[in-house]
Amino acid sequence: MTKNSSILGFLVLLLYASVSYTYAEDTLSANHTIRYNETIVSPQETFELGFFSPGNTKNHYVGIWYKKRSYKTVVWVANRDTPLTNTSGELTLTLQGVLIVRDTTTGNITWSSANSSTMTSLMNPNPIGQLLDTGNFIVYDGINQENPIWQSFDCLSNTLLPGMKYGINLVTGVERHYISWKSDDDPASGEFTYGINISGYPQVFLMDGPNIKFRGGPWNGLRYTGYPNLRPNPIYNYTFVLNERQVYFSYDLINTSVLMRVVLHPNGTTERLLWTDDKQEWNLYLAPTSDRCDSYAICGSFGRCNIDTSPFCECLKGFEPKSPDQWMSADSSQGCQRIIPLDCGPGEGFNKYSNLKLPDTRGSWYNQTMTLLECEKKCKSNCSCTAYTHLNISGAGSGCLLWFGDLIDIRTYSENGDTLYIRMPPSELDLVENRTGSSVGIRVRVMVPVAFVVLAILISLYLFYHFKRKKQHQQGTPTNMYEHDTENTNGDEDLELPLFGLLTLLKATNNFSMNNKLGEGGFGPVYKVL
Ligand SMILES: *[C@@H]1O[C@H](CO)[C@@H](O)[C@H](O)[C@H]1NC(C)=O
Ligand SMILES: *[C@@H]1O[C@H](CO)[C@@H](O)[C@H](O)[C@H]1NC(C)=O
Ligand SMILES: *[C@@H]1O[C@H](CO)[C@@H](O)[C@H](O)[C@H]1NC(C)=O
Ligand SMILES: *[C@@H]1O[C@H](CO)[C@@H](O)[C@H](O)[C@H]1NC(C)=O
Ligand SMILES: *[C@@H]1O[C@H](CO)[C@@H](O)[C@H](O)[C@H]1NC(C)=O
Ligand SMILES: *[C@@H]1O[C@H](CO)[C@@H](O)[C@H](O)[C@H]1NC(C)=O
Ligand SMILES: *[C@@H]1O[C@H](CO)[C@@H](O)[C@H](O)[C@H]1NC(C)=O
Ligand SMILES: *[C@@H]1O[C@H](CO)[C@@H](O)[C@H](O)[C@H]1NC(C)=O
Ligand SMILES: *[C@@H]1O[C@H](CO)[C@@H](O)[C@H](O)[C@H]1NC(C)=O
Ligand SMILES: *[C@@H]1O[C@H](CO)[C@@H](O)[C@H](O)[C@H]1NC(C)=O
Ligand SMILES: *[C@@H]1O[C@H](CO)[C@@H](O)[C@H](O)[C@H]1NC(C)=O
Ligand SMILES: *[C@@H]1O[C@H](CO)[C@@H](O)[C@H](O)[C@H]1NC(C)=O
To answer: What per-residue confidence (pLDDT) applies to 327?
Structure first.
């Protein structure tokens, strides 16, 4: 009984061993090659590596694709810019642990992994190349799989798979961004690149050659400011890491039984796609909501784009078009300028603007631990600082981000936007409610011209009333018109509001003193009566 079962067990083990041996071609040993019609397959047969020819081309490339899917979706290409023109190519793992693609008839090496990353490998006695079920092809010394000497995840193609990172190693300076294919049939490096720029506070950019196509902007602790729709979801989680050593973004699958990829298409659109087994096709998971407001700096400096208004460019409050004629003819590129310039006086403060895409942070300054109050002080103390905000809006908020000079590429969102505090001259300051322990008290918005107009109206009202009454009563004029108090003495019932004499008003408001001004309603300034 025991003997039988142990024999059975042995047979099962043998069968399993032979099966796993037959399918264990997920590795490439040192000094071995893969020819054009050979592949290696990841353990669970998710991915396959080998030679392929996209579309109708006669070019041959070494790449990685999803194995089981009816549609051969290539996620990584080795020799994308140096194709082989016939089937005599081969992929070899050298004894030094370097992968090379070469033409066997000439021996020419067309691609080598040694140049694709910072290789510090010396002689490895027995390097192994292995294709993992994540789609990562790693080369390791045969022992330490956790610390590969090379991995395909380190050299991005046009696809971001779960676990891949794009960003910059701040120690080595190695930068990883993804680059579109030239066309659906040509994996050569295309026009569009997507990655992080660390000038100022790091931001994500989609570049069209040397030009910015779209600015995803800085990470605000929860998402990129340019992606208000990026939020926690049941399929994947994501992280943005910024420290002294590195800055990167990556995502992982929460349910690892689904397939997901982010691809940068040859036309410059990025899509997050999810495989649906029922339909056997890739479906859009998160549609990139791209509209005209996503065009970089479309409204110029201090302008903001609002897709729900027409025209969609408007100046931020306190700003006016730099060239009104061009602005009227829907050319907003010149942007806006301050209605009242700054002079760095002590009365300057900040107005709060909500639900925005934060402006370009290239040239900005940041500190990850400062509070918002310290941030305001820091900005106020530097005359060239134009705006500040929290670096990280998660929780109670933390950190400080400062802008200097023009604020560029701002748009408004209906929700999930960020808050920005922009420096304003004293006369443009909003009446703000009590802010985080700020000792600013009540700020008043003073508009001298309006005050003057109101004064004029009051005088005319007085004169009008005065002469009307004079006509009615045919009496002599009061000895001093300023001493005349109209209050409840006229019997004119058509005036619903009590009308005060100008002198009374001047006295009560301390000659319309700015100190007595409370604020401004729809009808003009409101003053406090002593
Ligand atoms: C590597 O392969 C070549 C040719 O296939 C062979 O001559 C050589 O002995 C091999 N070297 C080792 C260390 O296996
Ligand atoms: C691969 O191609 C070679 C040469 O074209 C051929 O001899 C070999 O049988 C092919 N192998 C497979 C598995 O198709
Ligand atoms: C394959 O192409 C190379 C040039 O890329 C050429 O030198 C070589 O002769 C070709 N081999 C065959 C078998 O056609
Ligand atoms: C390929 O090898 C041949 C002969 O060795 C050489 O003339 C040619 O320039 C090489 N081509 C490339 C692209 O390196
Ligand atoms: C590595 O690639 C760069 C450009 O991508 C090139 O300038 C350099 O010569 C290459 N180095 C080697 C050793 O091939
Ligand atoms: C980042 O942006 C700056 C300013 O536009 C530019 O000079 C720099 O080359 C960019 N860096 C990268 C890695 O694209
Ligand atoms: C996703 O969540 C898992 C489990 O909590 C965690 O191990 C992983 O690091 C997370 N990935 C990212 C990119 O945040
Ligand atoms: C994971 O996804 C698969 C396929 O969509 C689904 O059948 C399964 O229920 C999911 N598992 C969890 C824990 O959500
Ligand atoms: C870009 O290409 C992708 C894939 O071919 C397509 O789904 C998308 O609609 C295209 N976008 C535009 C704006 O042409
Ligand atoms: C950030 O601000 C904190 C608190 O003001 C300060 O202690 C720290 O040195 C600052 N860090 C940098 C890099 O400026
Ligand atoms: C103000 O900030 C700018 C930009 O960071 C810097 O160059 C300048 O030295 C600062 N001035 C003062 C007085 O701190
Ligand atoms: C204003 O803020 C201070 C400090 O945070 C607080 O003590 C005070 O009660 C607040 N006043 C009002 C009217 O909210």
So the answer is: 82
Burial class (CB in 10 A: 0-12, 13-18, 19+), 299: buried
Distance in Å, CA 490 to ligand 2 centroid? 112
| Ligand 3 contacts CB of residue 310 (under 6 A) | no
For the four alpha carbons of 292, 233, 355 and 219, in that order, the dihedral sign comes to: negative
Identify the residue whose tokens are 């995803």. 216
- What is the structure's pLDDT at 441? 38
Nearest ligand to residue 255 Cα? 8
Residues with CB under 6 Å of ligand 6 are 175, 197, 199, 362
Res 448 pLDDT > 60: no
Alpha carbon nearest to ligand 1 atom 11, residue: 31
| Helix count and strand count (H, E) for the chain | 5, 36
Give tens-digit pLDDT for 256-310.
Answer: 889 999 999 999 999 999 998 888 889 998 766 688 899 999 999 999 999 998 8
Residue ranges matching CATH 2.90.10.10 in the chain? 18-155
Q: Which CATH number is 18-155's, of 3.40.50.970, 3.40.50.300, 2.40.50.100, 2.90.10.10?
A: 2.90.10.10
Q: Give me ligand 7 centre to Cα 252, in Å.
A: 6
pLDDT of residue 453: 65
* Cα dihedral sign, 198-199-200-206: negative
* Cis? peptide before 341, omega within 30° of 0: no
- Weakest-pLDDT range from 142-146, 190-194, 214-218: 142-146
Q: Confirm or reject: Cβ of 44 under 6 Å from ligand 7.
A: no
pLDDT > 90? residue 237: yes
DSSP state, residue 484: -
Q: Is the CB of 437 inside a 6 Å radius of any atom of ligand 12?
A: yes
